[in-house]
Amino acid sequence: MLSLSYLDIAFQVVDLENERSAQPKGDQPAILIYSGGSNVGLFAIRLAKKAGYTVVAMASPRSFDLVMRYGPDAVYDYESSASIDKIQNTYPDITKSRQLFQGPFDGLLC
């Protein structure tokens, strides 16, 4: 049975894909997937990449290798306050995020 969390993420990404298709070709917007190392986060990463987004994920350092196998463009440590500045400097145009769980830096990025 498919978890409701998976269905919710799938519907959110379909909405994002509809927005994405309205943008000019070659303009690849960025999205932040918080808790990218969770099973729902990994699913969200794959869907967002399929929808054509530049995917920035946050996860614990022990999950970086796993998360990178799912194809995000970058992975940052969700426990490090320095990650916020790095993400904001590297991806200043992030306007979308999908927060799958609450963490210590909620609301500081988008």
Structure write-up:
- With 110 residues, the chain is of the alpha/beta class.
- The protein has helices spanning 4-21, 39-50, 64-69, 81-90, and strands at 30-34, 54-59, 74-77, 96-99.
- Strands 3-2-1-4 form a four-stranded parallel beta sheet.
- Mean pLDDT is 77; it is low at 1-7.
- Helix 1 (4-21) runs parallel beside helix 2 (39-50).
- The relative contact order is 0.20.
- The chain is globular, with a radius of gyration of 13 Å.
- The chain has a domain at 41-102: NAD(P)-binding Rossmann-like Domain (Rossmann fold, 3-Layer(aba) Sandwich).
- It is built from four helices and four strands; from the N terminus they run αβαβαβαβ.
- The longest helix has 18 residues, at 4-21.
Strand and helix layout:
Elements: H1 4-21, E1 30-34, H2 39-50, E2 54-59, H3 64-69, E3 74-77, H4 81-90, E4 96-99
Parallel strand pairs: 1-2, 1-4, 2-3
